[in-house]
Amino acid sequence: MSRIALVDDDRNILTSVSMTLEAEGFEVETYNDGQAALDAFNKRLPDMAVLDIKMPRMDGMDLLQRLRQKTTMPVIFLTSKDDEIDEVLGLRMGADDYVKKPFSQRLLVERIRALLRRQDAVATDEVGTTEETKVMDRGDLRMDPLRHAVAWKGKDVSLTVTEFLLLQALAQRPGFVKSRDQLMDVAYDDQVYVDDRTIDSHIKRLRKKMRTADDTFSAIETLYGIGYRYNEE
Fold it and tell me: Does 56 sit behind a cis peptide bond, omega within 30 degrees of 0 on the bond before it?
């Protein structure tokens, strides 16, 4: 049973969403502000967190920043319809997805299940050894899907599930262009729609993380209006 942390200062949302998730078979922990959630996470991390952006004491952005210092667990943001800037910033900081308020609880459940499936795909070997599960070396890049491990020039780089899948898709065929639509298919469930900006934000975040290992990293090339390409160095 997956444990989902739901963090929101709206008690109605905490109550209704937690009831829905529990009915779907999840174990749910609820918190009404970011600091309370962080205190609990420091003792025991959930399998996934669903965070509101605007909360008292510690907002969702600050909580995400603290989390990304210690874990790559999947994170979904809950945003209001006017929070487009916060959505982009959240994705660049390392959120895996976002859902706009007011939202369909069924949609949120599907997003949660999609992220958990993707996490399992890079953390287990249930389907045996395939191109997607075996260790991949591409020049200075080394990826181990079964351990969710990435290294560049021997230095470990911590990636979220989404970032890992995007890098894997690009690096599997160096020199070949992947369109944004193709990358969406790799990183997201068929029932989940994301726009081009979401993919672009994840790629920017991915590049930034790779540059923590090597500030000259330039293996991911943007082809404007077309997509992205991995160039083996």
Answer: no
Q: Is 168 exposed, middle or buried (CB count within 10 Å of its CB: 0-12, 13-18, 19+)?
A: buried
Give how far Cα 76 sits from Cα of 30, 33, 144, Å: 14, 16, 25
**pLDDT tens, 111-125?**
898 888 877 766 654
Alpha-carbon dihedral angle through residues 212, 90, 99, 227, given to the nearest 10 degrees: -50
Residue 72 or residue 230, greater confidence: 230
Tokens 């890079």 map to which residue? 122
Distance CA 45, CA 50 (A): 13
**Which tens digits make up the pLDDT trace of 88-119?**
666 767 788 888 888 888 888 988 988 888 77
CA gap 131, 214 in Å, rounded:
26
Q: pTM, whole model, 2 decimals?
A: 0.64
